[in-house]
């Protein structure tokens, strides 16, 4: 998926690759990788949607929930990688 978004933060504006959007227990999440990173770095955020349609990405503050969400992301990501490998093979 070649989908990039720009986010403003403490260090100014930075571009991120959207790796995956997914839902877990009724909440939407997004996995992002900084464009400058070449390795398997990823961060997962909760998506808060406003009535205007704009989205805000919120850090998951509960460490147990953060682990659960990240494990879910990894399992989906690995499944999609296996499917891609099967299609290529």
Give an account of the 3D structure.
By secondary structure, the chain is α+β, with helices and mostly antiparallel strands. It is built from 1 helix and 5 strands, in the order E-E-E-E-E-H. It has a 5-stranded antiparallel sheet with strand order 1-2-3-4-5.
Please give the structural blueprint.
Elements: E1 4-9, E2 12-24, E3 27-34, E4 43-49, E5 55-58, H1 63-88
Antiparallel strand pairs: 1-2, 2-3, 3-4, 4-5
- Walk across the major sheet and give the strand order: 1-2-3-4-5
Q: Stretches where pLDDT falls below 50 for ≥5 residues?
A: none
Number of strands: 5
Main β sheet profile: 5 strands, antiparallel
Alpha-carbon distance between the two ends: 19 Å
Spatial shape: globular
Order of secondary-structure elements: EEEEEH
Oligomer: single chain
What percentage of amino acids are in beta strands? 35-45%
Please give the share of residues in helix.
25-40%
Radius of gyration (Å): 14 Å
Total helix count?
1
Pairing-aware structural class of the strands and helices?
alpha+beta
- Mean pLDDT comes to 88
